[in-house]
Write a structure and sequence with these properties.
Rossmann fold, single chain, eight-stranded mixed β-sheet
């Protein structure tokens, strides 16, 4: 059976639509709750697919979250082996850090449903369905483009919103995997961050009503097409 490991940093930030697509392909998806469960280097490197999910910490906070050291090192070993890997939000930052690129706080937080600007390469990539369609932004850190990667999307606040390395690595600073009906768990789980940023949960609910279904539909197409290119 094809095996996928998802490194999860928050219980409610799961694989979402990506999990549904893996189930449709009869892929065995198992979660590792990072910081709670031990990380198995051999399993992370050898899995048919690795998904590195989001979370509210920074990749540079290794003093406060020591598990990041092993997580980044094991991810680097997987990338060196050219194994299929997708990183979402914190996960994309992990990929960048593992490849030696700088990750640091950006000039402002991006939280909410809003568009991205696809590069010419992005318009030719699996991200093409997001030309003119909102994604769900939820991050404060920015990353530099890793060596050997191709920039696929940007915003004014975040010059590298998405990148790819060949066909086997995809990094997304934003969320396309989140089902709109699950947004409430994010509003509860991230209440402190939203309050600090001065963002009203009701405004995000309104955005989800406006854009959530279109984001999910485009996200499903993107993830389905990417999986078709990396899974046996």
């Amino acid at each position: 059976m094809t095996r996928c490991i998802a490194l999860r940093h928050l219980a409610f930030e799961d694989a979402g639509l990506l999990g549904d697509l893996l189930a449709e392909r009869s892929v065995d998806l198992s979660y590792v709750d990072v910081g709670i469960q031990p990380l198995d280097r051999a399993a992370i490197v050898s899995a048919d697919l690795l998904v590195v999910l989001g979370g509210p910490i920074g990749v540079y906070e290794t003093g406060e979250y020591p598990f990041l050291v092993d997580e980044i090192a094991f991810l680097r070993a997987r990338l060196d082996a050219n194994r299929p890997t997708i990183g979402i939000c914190l996960g994309a930052q992990m990929i960048a850090a593992a490849l030696g690129a700088r990750v640091a706080p950006g000039p402002a937080k991006e939280i909410g449903y809003a568009p991205i600007e696809l590069t010419d390469a992005g318009k030719r990539s699996v991200l093409a369905p997001f030309d003119g369609v909102d994604v769900l932004h939820w991050h404060g850190d920015n990353l530099d483009l890793p060596a050997g990667a191709e920039r696929l999307a940007s915003t004014q606040v975040c010059p590298t919103q998405a990148f790819s390395i060949g066909a086997h690595v995809l990094g997304l600073q934003f969320h396309i995997e989140t089902k709109p009906q699950m947004l409430e768990s994010w509003l509860i789980g991230h209440t402190a961050e939203l309050s600090k940023a001065g963002i009203s949960p009701s405004s995000l609910r309104a955005q989800a009503v406006r854009s959530g279904d279109a984001t999910a539909a485009a996200g499903r197409r993107v993830l389905d097409n990417w999986l078709a290119g990396v899974l046996p």
